[in-house]
Write a structure and sequence with these properties.
Layout (H helix, E strand, L loop, with lengths): L1 E2 L3 E5 L17 E5 L3 H13 L2 E2 L2 E10 L9 E5 L6 H6 L3 E2 L2 E3 L7 H11 L3 E3 L2 H11 L3 E9 L21 H10 L4 H27 L3
Parallel strand pairs: 1-4, 2-3, 2-5, 5-10, 6-7, 8-9
Antiparallel strand pairs: 5-9, 6-10
Helix pairs in contact: 1-4
Length: about 220
């Protein structure tokens, strides 16, 4: 396997990486869009790591809040001690957290409360445990850096699980049909989109600040 000095930052979808563009990344930092869910993340990351070995892998993107105190736009992280990012992440405004990696999107306030009670985690997402398990297997330091896109007190505007294909991708035909049948959802979807854009911007800023000065 080729050795590289790169930092690999993995996002599930391109919307999460919107404010971490090539021109603003530190030297030696590359990104990977894995697709949603553990299965897609594992396939994508294993393929990349058979070709090159980065010094650090970060799994980044959106997360749902489970701890009630976490507000939308808060950036939270968990890292291996060897990753050496904690001080820089905290300096950029991120806070330590525990993550639960779920098989499905947490849609309702009740679901999030149940996850919080059963796992004790602060935030929920769908890819990090698969990515970081591979990193542990290959002895590559890793970290999870996520931004809260929806707080514990917020229901999502649609049941996105019902809109997924068998390969854990959004079925846009189903999405458009669902919106067409429920036009009253449009306003809440637009508000949710605004919040996710703001969350992606906050995540990009923390990543730039914490990775920009080198490790």
């Amino acid at each position: 396997m080729q050795t590289s000095s790169t930092i690999l930052v993995c996002f599930a979808v391109k919307e999460e990486a919107k404010f971490f563009p090539v021109a603003e990344r530190p030297a030696g930092c590359v990104t990977l869009i894995t697709g949603m869910g553990r299965r897609n993340a594992e396939v994508a990351v294993r393929k990349v790591l058979t070709q090159a070995r980065p010094e650090l892998v970060i799994t980044a993107g959106f997360a749902g809040g489970l701890r009630p105190e976490l507000k939308t736009g808060a950036v939270v992280f968990e890292e291996d001690a060897e990753a050496g990012l904690a001080a820089k992440l905290q300096g950029a405004g991120a806070v330590p957290a525990r993550f639960y990696c779920a098989e499905r999107v947490a849609i309702t306030v009740a679901e999030k409360a149940a996850f919080w009670k059963s796992t004790g985690a602060d935030a929920v997402e769908m890819e990090s445990s698969a990515i970081r398990a591979i990193c542990r297997e290959l002895k590559i330091p890793s970290a999870t850096v996520r931004v809260i896109s929806d707080s514990a007190q917020e229901d999502l505007p649609l049941d996105f699980n019902a809109l997924m294909t068998a390969g854990d991708r959004i079925n846009y035909a189903k999405l458009f049909w669902t919106i067409a049948r429920s036009p009253g959802k449009i306003a809440s979807l637009m508000q949710f989109q605004k919040r996710t854009v703001a969350a992606a911007r906050a995540l990009g800023e923390v990543l730039r600040q914490s990775l920009g000065g080198g490790r």
